[in-house]
Design a protein that fits this description.
The complex is a heterodimer of chains A (332) and B (307). With 332 residues, chain A is mainly alpha-helical. Chain A has a domain at 92-294: MetI-like (MetI-like fold, Orthogonal Bundle). Chain A has helices at 2-30, 45-55, 61-73, 90-125, 130-143, 147-167, 188-226, 229-236, 241-263, 265-279, 284-293, 297-325. In chain A, helix 8 (229-236) packs antiparallel against helix 9 (241-263). Chain A starts with a helix and ends in a 7-residue tail after the last helix. Chain B is mostly helical and 307 residues long. Chain B has 14 helices and no strands. The chains are: A mainly alpha (332), B mainly alpha (307). At the A-B interface, helix 1, helix 5, helix 6, helix 7 and helix 10 of A face helix 1, helix 7, helix 8, helix 12 and helix 14 of B.
């Protein structure tokens, strides 16, 4: 097992290197970070030349990539070069954004997984019941739903709910414009109140989307297993329905869902980007959108490198989980 | 599997096989598939919706009074006879905008699906048939593309080159072919072991001939289904990208751009949000249902068992 993990990690290294190089070339060819400078009054050709040299833009791409890579690996991720902004270091900017997004995504994903699995199992056990049709069609509908529309709808009903609260003489509870900086203060009750108010809406929006995928997947894999021979054998032996479902079928039906959970990372990330934008959280999504708008290559590279590494890690976790849960699969 | 099939014929989906043989009329595979598809009620309704949306997008502008570029003097008109869906802040007619937006979203989605299918089938079939080096190289390329978030690459390309609809389509296609390539590769691996392929090779057929004359026609079912699903996925991805302001750029418009420009009016002028929302959802739902119907038509054994 350990040998397998080490081998997988070693295979990931060239993929990450080639991937980051491809990204670097893409970012380098996509635009000139100094383009805006030319339009500013009082900027001479010499100023631009000087800026180019200070950013190393006069060197070939391969050299620049090499310098970036060395810097990245030694913890020096460079400085943001977006114009009109204080020079921020890339490392804290990206890690802060990742922390913000992580807090949002982890809760939403765990909720979606729990609910999705529960609904999927119920739908499979009561196949063709009203509950099954309801669950299946809801999942299908959510699957065809644009994520940003779900987020917009959730947000606006949240605002209306707040208005109702206010008209009843209560405080506005749900936050629709991102978490307040500086964390939550006050008594325990107040902290809980503010915390849930801040997280509820974006979590619901993000959850609805993943939930559809999990429940569909769990239902399909549960159905397949309920129709398999070993379940029929278990039934034939006279084992009770509950025991067959939970002891024999459920455990096996969890395997593909567990893999989906770890493989889903990329999709969840893009969902989070959209949800964050709608709810005004300054996480990975906002960071990406801003870095692209202002065309900030160091920030973009930091963002891309972190997400690519995370995706590789999650893929590895998916394979390991698969191997642990299902001993028939031989890793190697 | 047998149990699954018995369970499968309970629903409204057409019963495959038995009674069609009883009819004692020989039908080709294609006719059978077409019959099953035409009897799939949900798929037919969806096909109707899809055709309606296509007509709405491409024929509508010729019939409707306003053009999507026309700026009337009336900002934020409510719904009325002159403007059935009201006007936007700058006074553009929402119905005209929707026609244009739907046309752009459709154009992009169809091109993405077509490109993704051609690239995916070619690469997948080559990898599965030739195996060895070609296969390894392809799978590594897929690994590579999987670790880079599509949304970021698309955003950078659109920012760096242009927000024209064909650029958006090309970037989306660059990431959409992998799914189809994987499925094609898998099916090719098993089909290539069959006798008819061996026979073709013994007759001296070239690799392209074996792939496109013998292998691809045998996979046409899953290729068609996945091409359809790729359309639905492309509609949603394009809309999401444009919604973030990183896809199609104004003054061009797409369904995502229309939602982006109007979702702030959700509470005060809800029709400006719900109009594009309904078009977007019915487009993606219709295409998904058509894909589902096609899947049932091509492979009736799967009916109702899949998720």
């Amino acid at each position: 097992m350990i040998r397998y993990i080490i081998r997988r990690l070693l295979i990931s290294v060239p993929i990450l290197l080639i991937g980051s190089f491809a990204c670097y070339v893409l970012v380098a060819t996509a635009g000139n970070p100094l383009a805006e400078m030319r339009f500013r009054p009082g900027v001479t050709e010499a100023d631009i030349k000087a800026a180019e040299i200070s950013l190393g833009l006069d060197q070939p791409v391969v050299v620049r990539y090499w310098n970036w890579l060395i810097g990245f690996l030694s913890g020096d991720w460079g400085q943001s070069i977006a114009l009109g902004q204080a020079k921020t270091a890339v490392f804290p900017a990206v890690t802060d954004a990742l922390w913000t997004t992580g807090r949002l995504v982890i809760g939403a994903e765990l909720l979606a997984l729990t609910l999705g699995v529960a609904v999927g199992v119920l739908a499979a056990v009561r196949q063709y019941s009203i509950f099954d049709y309801l669950a299946t069609s809801t999942a299908f509908l959510m699957f065809s739903m644009p994520i940003f529309c779900v987020a917009v709808i959730v947000k606006n009903y949240g605002i209306q709910f707040n208005n109702v609260l206010e008209s009843m003489g209560l405080d506005r509870w749900l936050t629709t414009a991102g978490p307040r900086p500086g964390g939550f203060t006050g008594s325990f009750g107040e902290v809980v109140f503010k915390y849930t108010g801040t997280f509820l809406l974006p979590t619901v929006a993000l959850m609805l989307i993943s939930f559809a995928a999990y429940s569909r997947f769990e239902r399909a894999s549960m159905l397949e297993i309920l129709h398999s021979d070993f379940v029929r054998t278990a039934r034939a032996k006279g084992i009770s329905q509950g025991r067959v479902v939970f002891r024999h079928a459920f455990r096996n039906a969890l395997i593909p869902v567990a893999t989906l959970f770890s493989l889903n990372f990329g999709a969840v990330l893009s969902g989070a980007i959209i949800t964050e934008t709608v709810f005004g959280w300054s996480g990975m999504g906002t960071l990406l959108v801003n870095s692209v708008r202002q065309f900030d290559p160091p920030m973009l590279m930091g963002w891309l490198a972190v997400t690519a590494t995370l995706i590789v890690l999650f893929n590895l976790i998916a394979d390991i989980v698969y191997g642990v849960l299902d001993p028939r699969i031989r890793l190697g | 599997m047998n149990l699954a099939v018995e369970g499968g014929v309970v629903g409204s989906a057409p019963q495959a096989g038995s009674h069609e043989f009883d009819a004692a009329k020989t039908r080709t595979q294609g006719q059978l598939v077409l019959r099953r598809f035409l009897r799939h009620r949900l798929a037919m309704v969806s096909l109707g919706v899809f055709v309606f949306l296509v007509l709405f997008a491409f024929l509508g502008p010729f019939l409707w009074t306003y053009d999507y570029e026309d700026v009337t003097s009336k900002s934020y008109q409510p719904m009325s006879g002159a403007h059935p869906l009201g006007t936007t802040q700058v006074g553009k007619d929402m119905l005209a905008l929707l026609m244009r937006g739907t046309a752009y979203s459709l154009q992009i989605a169809l091109i993405v699906a077509a490109l993704a299918t051609v690239i995916g089938v070619t690469f997948g079939a080559l990898a599965g048939y030739l195996r060895g080096f070609v296969d390894t190289a392809l799978m590594r390329l897929v690994d590579l593309l999987l670790i880079i978030p599509q949304i970021a690459v698309a955003a950078i390309v659109v920012k760096g080159f242009s927000g024209s609809w064909y650029v958006v389509a090309l970037v989306l296609a660059a990431f959409a072919w992998m799914q189809i390539a994987r499925i094609t590769r898998g099916e090719t691996l098993s089909l290539a072991q069959r006798e008819f392929v061996e026979a073709a090779r013994a007759c001296g057929a070239s690799t392209p001939r074996i792939i496109f004359k013998h292998l691809v026609p045998n996979m046409i079912g899953s290729i068609t289904v996945n091409a359809t699903l790729a359309i639905a996925a492309a509609v949603l991805t394009e809309a999401a990208l444009s919604f973030l302001g990183l896809g199609v750029q104004p003054p061009d418009t797409s369904l995502g751009v229309i939602v982006l420009e109007n979702y702030g009016q959700f509470l005060n002028r809800p029709w400006l949000f719900w109009g594009p929302f309904i078009v977007l959802v019915s487009l993606s739902l219709a295409v998904n249902f058509i894909g589902d119907g096609l899947r049932d038509a091509f492979d009736p054994r799967q009916t109702k068992v899949r998720a």
